[in-house]
Amino acid sequence: MFDRVTNPIYHIINTPYKIFDHLFNLCSTKLYLSNINQKLHIKILEISSEQLLFNQYKEENRRLRKLLHAPLKQDVKKIFATVISKNIDFYTSQIIIDKGISDGIQIGQSVIDHKGILGQVIVSNKFTSRILLICDFAHAIPLQNLRSNIRFIAFGNGYNQDLRIESLKNDIDVQIGDVLVTSGIGGVFPEGYPVAIISSINTSQDSTYQEVYAHPIANFHTLRFVLILKYNNHFIRENPPDIPKSVIQVEKKRFMELMQEFK
Fold first, then answer.
1. Which of 41, 78, 155, 198 is 20 to 30 A from 163, comparing alpha carbons?
2. 93 within domain boundaries
């Protein structure tokens, strides 16, 4: 009898508590879900921000993979470096890399990219080095015509300009499209590395010399990563032998690849 009387009263009294408890649980669940949603939103933003850089990482990876196939000889050690600064205008063509004396960089070492010769080290500090590009007016590089084996010197002619080859008589065998590689004379650049392709030949009846220009194979516009060639023994060859047939075959293959890229 007592239970029959108290149960309705208990139910009436307890109902607000049940409603409050239910609302509290709903609020707690909503707050929990809101926190989870916020965390997920932050995670999505983080992933999205990383995705924004995906193409850049993909491009860097492509360049690194190409760099690993750079035209290196087996007896040459390589030091990988990143370009951290450029000092490039019409009169000056220099870059600064993030490697220095502490990494084994020395003045005079050759610098290449995945296509060929870029320049040489002219200043080396503890942690950075300065590179003089082959297109700088102050630069000269001994070359050899891969087809005819004729040797000459090419001079920098300014950024975005073809290299200038001087003192070539009209009867010297050069043709547009000839691949020019390092001759090894002077002991700075190793022989056989691609440098440029002859782009124009101007002859004049009033002169016994022809004006020859060669387009650099290396791409100075997109320089990001470079390789510095480190030799166990310093080489000096005043009269280097002819380029080996194996090197000629490799360079001809690279020339055909370059022609496909130009197309």
1. 78
2. yes
